[in-house]
Automatic annotation (TrEMBL):
GO terms for molecular function: cytidine deaminase activity; identical protein binding; zinc ion binding. Belongs to the cytidine and deoxycytidylate deaminase family. Substrate binds at N47, I48, E49, N50, A51, S52, Y53. Zn(2+) binds at C58, C91, C94. The lineage of its organism: Bacteria, Thermotogati, Thermotogota, Thermotogae, Petrotogales. It catalyses: cytidine + H2O + H(+) = uridine + NH4(+); 2'-deoxycytidine + H2O + H(+) = 2'-deoxyuridine + NH4(+). This is Cytidine deaminase.
Length: 141
């Protein structure tokens, strides 16, 4: 793969392109995501709404779920883009899914190319993990 900056530029372009496919007739709020796997594949996602709002799905989760459904489980970088004043921030559900699958780097951005790079711990400092299900407390709560 290219330099980190070139990688982010590539993912930014893929996320921006995916954003165009948003199905957001209710909110009119389009979001795109691009996920790079450790094997070098890129999966994209966009938000898809439903009249029954709880059935809607965010771009970040769609990209991750597409990758997992294709057998990928190790992730390098996720870029999320929205038409926002500052870099877009994932919802809580997306943060939990991002943490579950251990994405190494999350890049939040907007159409002005403002970037905010974050680790999963920065994005979700006290996330729920499988260790809690095993009776272990990984967050020392």
């Amino acid at each position: 793969m290219k330099t980190n900056q070139e990688k982010i530029e590539l993912l930014y372009g893929k996320a921006k392109e995916a954003m165009k496919n948003s199905y957001s007739p209710y909110s009119k709020f389009k979001v795109g995501a691009a996920l790079l796997t450790k094997s070098g594949k890129i999966y994209t996602g966009t938000n898809i709404e439903n009249a029954s709002y709880g059935l809607s799905m965010c771009a970040e989760r769609i990209a991750i779920f597409k990758a997992v459904s294709e057998g990928e489980t190790e992730f390098e970088t996720l870029v999320v883009i929205g038409d926002t004043e500052t870099p877009i921030s994932p919802c809580g559900a997306c943060r939990q899914v991002i943490a579950e699958f251990g994405v190494n780097e999350v890049v939040l951005t907007n159409l002005k190319k403002d970037l905010k790079k974050m680790s999963v711990k920065e994005l979700l400092p006290y996330g729920f993990s499988g260790e809690e299900l095993d009776g272990k407390d990984s967050n020392n709560r």
